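Moderator note: this is an archived Q&A kept for reference. The question asked for a predicted structure of one protein chain; the sequence and the answer are reproduced below.
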Amino acid sequence: MTPPTQDYRRGIIAMSLAMAVLLVNDSIVKLVTARVPSDQIIFTRGACVVVFILVGLAATQPQAFRFLTVHRTIWAGGRGVMDASASFCWVVSLIGLPLANGTAITLAGPLILTGLAMLFLRERVGWRHWAATVAGLVGVLLIIQPSGEAFNWFSLLALLSTFFTATRDAVTRRIGFEMPSILLTLATGVVTSAIAGLLGLAGLAGWGRAWPPISVGDVALLALASLFMIAAQQLTIYSLRVAQASTVAPFRYTSMLWAMFYGYLLWGDVPNLVALAGMVVVVLSGLYLLHRERLKHRIAEVAP
């Protein structure tokens, strides 16, 4: 597989678009959660991901499976386990945690990923980059304004979900360009649906809650959500392949900007002044990071 050209601009754009697409997936899933258990939702959506990708590969890229060596399959499976673990920890945490508080905890992800990029990917991260990343976190906290409830076990699950997500992204960068990104997404779908399926079988065996019948309409909604999930995964993987993980990590904060945009467009929600101030901080921190990357790129071009 030919490595993509390294371009921090494309990486930033891809990560920002991934957050927008992922938010659509989350919105669709939220519509179904009132009627369908979380593990059944994860299984159905994951199964749809697998079916759509297999059909698409069979029709357009049957040769893609030749990249599946034992070594690469292990790495892809490990990435899938990280993604599945993040999904399950996040869903369970929402049982006893307000959404705003859970979201606030997950926003530590870019900081964790930046640290992992330094430790395991040998990326150089200066204090200005750290400062801009922290500023973006502060801006997002101003937007969501979480309540001051006590930190509990559900909060720990949300934090664990954040760690798994950051580790998944670091592994994605570590895998490199050896395997087509669609196969990485396929592996995630297989692992996620398999784990959720085992939980469903445990429920049938009397070791948990049995799944209720699911309507055709809900299956259709989850199938639609799976398409957005595939797109978000592809964009995220692409961003981590064309740019350093520490460069694109802070642009996960743009998910809150997209949330505000969708809220205003669909439901007429108008953010308060504190949220607007947070939005300004997020935008300014992103622009500063973009400026720093452009400056580093120019210096690298002149150096030879």
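Archived answer notes: The chain is about 75% helix and 0% strand.
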